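Table S2 (text version). Query chain:
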Amino acid sequence: MAHDHFNLIRHELGKLPELPRWGRVQENHWDRLSNFIYRVKTLRGVQRQARAKAQAEGLEVKAFEAYAVRRWYNQHTHDQILQIFLAHPDVQPEENRKHHTIDFYLRGLPFDLKVSRFPQAYPESIEYAQQHPHHLALWQYQNQS
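Corresponding structure-token output:
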């Protein structure tokens, strides 16, 4: 059952040719209004619910839809990557799936999985970053938003 869920989500994530722009700083009010992203499994479903919620709340429809789709994509991409870690025998999941700072334990040590796109502002190529991951990590830490 869970395997089918992750296959469906992976298929749906692939339907998004590019991520919409946030259009605004992520914030609690719009996060609460878009919490349906955790239940909805299809891109079309997220778009439909976002449009309905935006109209009901008097929000700009395109902006709220982009925001909700972005959150949905980020959440489910995180979950897909988390499953890769959890497949390793030395990794155990955090029992509380809503824990804010721990996603899994590697040999008993807690980890909070963070997923990020390759930063467009990074002054080097992706090839350089692959050969010098410490440089990229340091740059991301120094330039985090």
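Notes on Table S2: The longest strand covers residues 91-93. The beta strands are 91-93, 104-106, 109-111.
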